[in-house]
Amino acid sequence: MHHIYTTKAFVVHSFPHGESGKFLLLFTKDFGLVGAVAQGIRFSKSKLRSHLIDFGFANVSLVRGKEVWRVTGAQEIEHQKKNIIQIKILRLLKRLLHGEEKNEKLFEIVEKLYQIEIDETDFDNVECLTVLRILNSLGYISKNDKYSNLLESTDIDHGQIDLIKEIKPEIIKTINQSLKESHL
Description:
The protein has helices spanning about 85-95, 105-115, 125-135, 150, 160-180; strands at about 5-15, 20-30, 30-40, 55-65, 70-75. The chain is of the alpha+beta class. It folds into 2 domains: about 5-75, CATH 2.40.50.140; about 85-180, no CATH class. A 5-stranded mixed beta barrel has the order 1-2-3-5-4. Strand 2 and strand 3 form a beta hairpin.
């Protein structure tokens, strides 16, 4: 008998698999980035269909198969509508993450984007803060006293957004340099 694992997950990407299934790239809290097959999800009567949409956030039940994970159940987590920051961040994770590796802090950083309401005027600043934290969490940014109070927390508040506004060009330079050095 197979063990069923239930974990929170973001749907990073999906594409058709077989006649009625989908292959899903999931960023999970417990396993990191995993590929999973959801059989029959493209049928209009599928119960999973509305819970596992691209860039969505859900509690997902998975079984480890011989070659690939299989989705056995899912329940979308109720949060605000998706915004452009969430989509950009999940696309960035697709580029940066390779293979299964649990990273709870990274998961928490991304989860915050789905838990708070972000004013459209702050999109650029919140995106900048989130990317900085992601790169730090993955070890692409060295310790810097200037950013320490931004990197310690995973919360997003107005004080942090105001600080980002003050030093944004410097942070963007750090982000770009980190991405360049990572060859991604």
